[in-house]
Design a protein that fits this description.
By secondary structure, this protein is of the alpha/beta class. It has eleven helices and eleven strands. Helix 4 (about 95-105) packs across helix 11 and helix 6 runs parallel beside helix 11 (about 295-320). Residues about 5-10 and about 10-25 have low confidence and may be disordered.
Amino acid sequence: MGQNRRTFVAGLAALAGAPLLAQTPTFPSRVIRIVPFGTAGGPIDTLARVYADKLQQRWGQAVIIDAKPGASGIIAADFVAKAPPDGHTVMFTLPLSHVNSAILMPKLPYDPVKDFTPLSMLATGGPMLVARSNAPYNNLKEFVEFARKQKVMNYGTWGNGSAAHLFGELLKRQSGANLTHVAYKSEAAAHNDLFGEALDFAWSNPSTARAQVQGGKMKVLGIAGTRRVSTLPNVPTFAEQGFQGFDVDSWIGVYAPAKLPAAIQDAWVTALREITAMPDVQARLTGYGFEPLGNTPAQFMEVFKADFPRVSELIKSAGVTLQ
């Protein structure tokens, strides 16, 4: 068992046995800071702002968005891990900062379990493989046939070790085509190079893909994960097109620093669950291709624990390293 896996298992045990704190200070007592995964204007940043507005209305305190992009979410996660455990700083993130990077990197500046308090998994979803609208293929089978005839095809994602990166490398192995990964700081940056023909194909979240499809600039070849999405219901999954191993869902999770008092954790969990259940918020989540959840910390940890071996196997199958 590797160091990260041992740390993960030990961390789960420690988390389960952590004592509840009987007394907590008044919460919230000052400005709340949400640190989103990725860059300003990205999908997680945008969704974080939706929740920030609702939280501000609910608690009567200002809620600010403080993006700290770079290093595949590691900079943001490290900042939150080292923040005071008083509930006034939380992170909205994807699995990359807490699952994928923990498996791929021998040493992170934080422990993905011991240094955080899980609050809620807001939603699940999956990335889409996209190409320019004038690309000479319309589905994954045609794409693979074309790619095998090329010397090399470059593709862009929003970071090393991201789900899109893993799926891209798995597709490379399964297809036998020479597909070269190019990591960007944001999805938008990758798409700019796709439209500028510096990339041959890329990955996208469903809401961006829908907008670009409607604008006539992009076509979608397939969606990873376990299901189709309502915003682009005609796009089949990889499994439906005969490609196996791509049925690992992504998710949006909210974390606070470790040792958060139980009463403050409960306040956050209740607020996140009730906000996620609001029709307008559900519409925003489904618009981004996510299935709303708003689960409990225990349920969050169940999914997190199950994801570790599945993502480990995906990384192994894809042959991904960060070296």
